[in-house]
């Protein structure tokens, strides 16, 4: 999907129409539908209908809507805030829109997109709360289906809750500091006991609970808090619900380069975003600088989401950040994420442990193969453990060579995944003997996970390419 595919051709907005004229032209079902939609608002509807159909006429009479039974002429649009051309006659509707545009009034012609300055949405009304669903005019039936789904999800009491919230807004503005404290107050207001009481129409109890909540928040001292959050392997739908909630509540998002922009953008729109690099060969900030930044933000009373690729406790250097926060007296929490090894295994439908084959699992980077003695994890691999090697492309040769030298069979199955868990993941498979060739695969620019072990043979290789195929292609090219 391109960036253009994600962009709307319209800007969603709500017109202020209280006590403003909304002019509806037409006699039939189209005009009737527009009038019914407008009746959800406090607009002053004026129906230009010289011969309304029976149902429409009854609706106009029952709701005391002003009706003007005159043929169209351009001056009728003057003074209107919105104009709806719904006569069912294409040429006449275009004439009405032309008159409205000449008077600089937004207009909408039914079933004529080129003569629509705005589209009418499918509406879920919980006044003063409204949800409008638009499809840019291409799918009215789809919009109605979505509206029905949302209508079922939203409690009927939502409007009452919104009005109650509005009655507390001035007190909250006066007593509760801006930023995280105020957002947390409103989260508890809309999701806690206040909402529960409103739902069963216990408005006095809801007010009592809201007042108690307000006094408690106003009395609290504003303290900073840092959340070390795992962003998962990079797919938006693998972010945990808790991680997303915290991103919507925080003041600042501090994120690594390996976290895709699509995930960062799931945070609160007006939260400050601070990139800190942290990818192989490209560190915009040192770890000490990142530690100091988190402490500084915490002392400033900010709620900070420190967003890390995968899981913060698996090669995420969270230990150093936790130590710095503890030493500074800054409160923090850990929010786990889906680590890349698990996402890579899922891409391959690969059992990391398998009864009778592998009963242990090792996470490693492979960089500890520099010494003369095989590290403990390598000895575990020789005994049948499944080994997941993070950042595995550049150490593939040393990993393979040392393991084979230690006695691991050269035909042991390996699985390789670039961008594990994402839509653009790339899967390769082969043997330990073929693994060193991975270092030459410079086209693999995303994070690469290598999984080695007898359990890997149980993976589904139908969507992956053989590691040896690349070597064969290079040899064929060399012959030519």
From TrEMBL:
Keyword Metal-binding: no
Occurrences of domain Sirohaem synthase dimerisation (ranges): 157-214
Identification of the protein by name: Uroporphyrin-III C-methyltransferase/precorrin-2 dehydrogenase/sirohydrochlorin ferrochelatase
Pathway given in the UniProt record: Porphyrin-containing compound metabolism; siroheme biosynthesis; sirohydrochlorin from precorrin-2: step 1/1; Porphyrin-containing compound metabolism; siroheme biosynthesis; precorrin-2 from uroporphyrinogen III: step 1/1
An example Gene Ontology biological process: methylation
EC assignment: 1.3.1.76, 2.1.1.107, 4.99.1.4
Family according to the record: Belongs to the precorrin methyltransferase family.
GO MF entries: NAD binding; precorrin-2 dehydrogenase activity; sirohydrochlorin ferrochelatase activity; uroporphyrin-III C-methyltransferase activity
Catalytic machinery residues: 256, 278
Keyword vocabulary terms for this entry: Cobalamin biosynthesis, Lyase, Methyltransferase, Multifunctional enzyme, NAD, Oxidoreductase, Porphyrin biosynthesis, S-adenosyl-L-methionine, Transferase
InterPro entries given in the database record: 4pyrrol_Mease (IPR000878), 4pyrrol_Methylase_sf (IPR035996), 4pyrrole_Mease_sub1 (IPR014777), 4pyrrole_Mease_sub2 (IPR014776), CobA/CysG_C (IPR006366), NAD(P)-bd_dom_sf (IPR036291), Siro_Cobalamin_biosynth (IPR050161), Sirohaem_synt_dimer_dom_sf (IPR037115)
Catalytic activity: precorrin-2 + NAD(+) = sirohydrochlorin + NADH + 2 H(+)
Limits of the Tetrapyrrole methylase domain: 226-435
Tree of life domain: Bacteria
